[in-house]
Structure formats: structure tokens, C-alpha cells
């Protein structure tokens, strides 16, 4: 793959990940292992409230083909096939679930030094076509995304965005929800490892005359421990601590508190991920 502006989904992703990734309000345990044949097997279990769920997955890579199969507690089998450079500078992704055959999806991504295009088609009785494109460089990106439903002849979505990226910072503006929402975000990394960072995001929903402003950050206590926190103008406070107990294996503890309703019980989450 060539170095270029990246996909439209990458616009604002760094700031979004810092404000959302690893924050959880349930309990989750996942264990991964690898076989001599190159198959990576992962088993996970999640408990949320009084409900429990789990799945078992296998990941296998052969040359430029990646096969990902997951089986959940409802005996549904989700399969994703990824072909890299099937055609030069492309990635092709096919996914489907059994027995839900209407969940099939085919996506083709094309990467160029100054552009990236992605097309996704849902394989069901009422198919939709999603198309996104970006132009620019790794430093400056402008792009758009649209969804079209051939049966009804209507646009299901259209979004536009712009991003300016530097080695230690990234800023983006996205106009989405058919022009009803605008979101601006900025993230600044405070160290070379990019484990410590500060982020700010403001979202304006025009139809509801509502603004949401969120600030957050992460701080590397040491090489094995990271703490994160976020707070928005509606009083929602989140915090987490993640520690690498052994190489590639992490324990994460997080909590969420509504500072405008202190009588409510805070939410807590715990995750344990073990990898070889």
C-alpha cells in the first residue's frame, strides 16, 4: 500500500479513539493464543448487567489473505475475508454471517499517494451502496462520504470532512448527519510514544440546538501504566486505568459518573486481555 491521505474513516479517528477506546461499563475477559500453523485463536466473555455473552474466534493469514471467523453464544458464525493487493494498491473485504445471509457485505478500498477511495455494497434484498473518497497528503486531507439506496433512489447519508495532521497533533472538522451535525476535534501528543495526550471535541446538532463539548486526555504514569479521563459539558465524567501486567496483556479498570446526578450509582467496568 502506498502512503497517502488514508480513508475517510480516518478523519478525526485519533481524537475519537482517545475519548472512547477502552472506556467500558461491563466486565470482559479475552484470552488469545497462537498455534504453530499460524492460527490465532481468541476466546472472550462479556457480562453486562445480568446478561452474559461470549464468542470464540480464529484468525489465519496466508500470504495476502486474512481469514477471520467468530462464533458467538447464539451459534451465529461471522466470517471476514480480507485480500490485500488482489489488484495493486487495493484491499478487498468480504464479510457475512451464518445463518443471517442478508448480513453480507463487500468492500473494496483503493489507495494512492494523493487519494483513497472505498466502496461498500450490502448483499441483501434492499442493498445500499456506500462510497467515500479522500484527496490530499498525510498532512492535509479533505474527503466526503455518501450512502445510496438503489431501490428507493434516495441518499441515506452524506458527510464531508477535513483534517490537518502533524507529527504531534491532529485537527479535524466533520459535517455529518446530512448536514445536521458538525464536529470539530483537536488532539495534541505530549510525548514521543504518544501515550500522553490532550484532546478536545465540540459537537453542534442544529436540529436540536444542542452543543456538546468534551475534553480529555491520557497520561503515561510509566512504561506499563496509562490513565485516561474525559469530561463533557453535560457533567459526564469518565476515567480509566490500564496496566500491562505481562507483555501484550492488559488489565483495564474504568468508571463513569454523572456529576449532575450524584445520587445515581457510578458505573464501573473491568477488562482483562491476555495474549501470548
TrEMBL record:
UniProt keyword annotation of Transmembrane present: yes
Keyword field contains Transport: yes
Keyword line: Ion transport, Membrane, Porin, Transmembrane, Transmembrane beta strand, Transport
Pfam families, sorted: Porin_3
CDD domains recorded: Porin3_VDAC (cd07306)
GO molecular-function terms, A-Z: porin activity; voltage-gated monoatomic anion channel activity
UniProt subcellular location: Membrane
InterPro entries: Porin_dom_sf, Porin_Euk, Porin_Euk/Tom40
Major location (coarse): membrane
UniProt GO cellular component terms: mitochondrial outer membrane; pore complex
Protein family membership: Belongs to the eukaryotic mitochondrial porin (TC 1.B.8.1) family.
Purpose: Forms a channel through the cell membrane that allows diffusion of small hydrophilic molecules. The channel adopts an open conformation at low or zero membrane potential and a closed conformation at potentials above 30-40 mV. The open state has a weak anion selectivity whereas the closed state is cation-selective.
Name listed for the protein in its UniProt record: Voltage-dependent anion-selective channel protein
Lineage: Eukaryota, Viridiplantae, Streptophyta, Embryophyta, Tracheophyta
Amino acid at each position: 500500500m502506498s502512503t497517502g491521505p488514508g480513508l475517510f474513516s480516518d478523519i478525526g479517528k485519533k481524537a475519537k479513539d482517545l475519548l472512547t477506546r477502552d472506556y467500558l461499563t461491563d466486565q470482559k475477559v479475552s484470552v488469545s493464543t497462537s498455534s504453530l500453523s499460524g492460527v490465532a485463536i481468541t476466546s472472550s466473555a462479556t457480562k453486562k448487567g445480568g446478561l452474559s455473552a461470549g464468542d470464540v474466534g480464529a484468525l489465519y493469514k496466508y500470504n495476502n489473505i486474512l481469514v477471520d471467523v467468530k462464533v458467538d453464544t447464539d451459534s451465529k458464525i461471522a466470517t471476514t475475508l480480507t485480500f490485500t493487493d488482489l489488484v495493486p494498491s487495493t484491499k478487498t473485504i468480504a464479510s457475512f454471517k451464518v445463518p443471517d445471509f442478508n448480513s453480507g457485505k463487500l468492500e473494496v478500498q483503493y489507495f494512492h499517494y494523493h487519494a483513497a477511495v472505498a466502496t461498500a455494497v450490502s448483499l441483501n434484498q434492499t442493498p445500499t451502496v456506500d462510497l467515500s473518497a479522500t484527496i490530499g497528503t498525510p498532512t492535509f486531507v479533505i474527503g466526503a462520504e455518501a450512502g445510496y439506496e438503489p431501490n428507493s433512489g434516495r441518499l441515506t447519508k452524506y458527510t464531508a470532512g477535513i483534517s490537518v495532521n502533524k507529527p504531534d497533533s491532529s485537527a479535524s472538522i466533520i459535517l455529518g448527519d446530512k448536514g445536521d451535525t458538525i464536529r470539530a476535534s483537536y488532539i495534541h501528543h505530549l510525548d514521543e510514544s504518544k501515550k500522553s495526550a490532550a484532546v478536545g471535541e465540540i459537537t453542534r446538532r442544529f436540529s436540536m440546538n444542542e452543543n456538546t463539548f468534551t475534553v480529555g486526555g491520557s497520561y503515561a504514569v510509566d512504561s506499563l501504566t496509562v490513565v485516561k479521563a474525559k469530561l463533557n459539558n453535560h457533567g459526564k465524567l469518565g476515567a480509566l486505568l490500564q496496566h500491562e501486567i505481562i507483555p501484550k496483556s492488559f488489565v483495564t479498570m474504568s468508571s463513569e459518573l454523572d456529576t449532575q446526578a450524584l445520587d445515581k450509582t457510578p458505573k464501573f467496568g473491568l477488562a482483562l486481555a491476555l495474549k501470548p
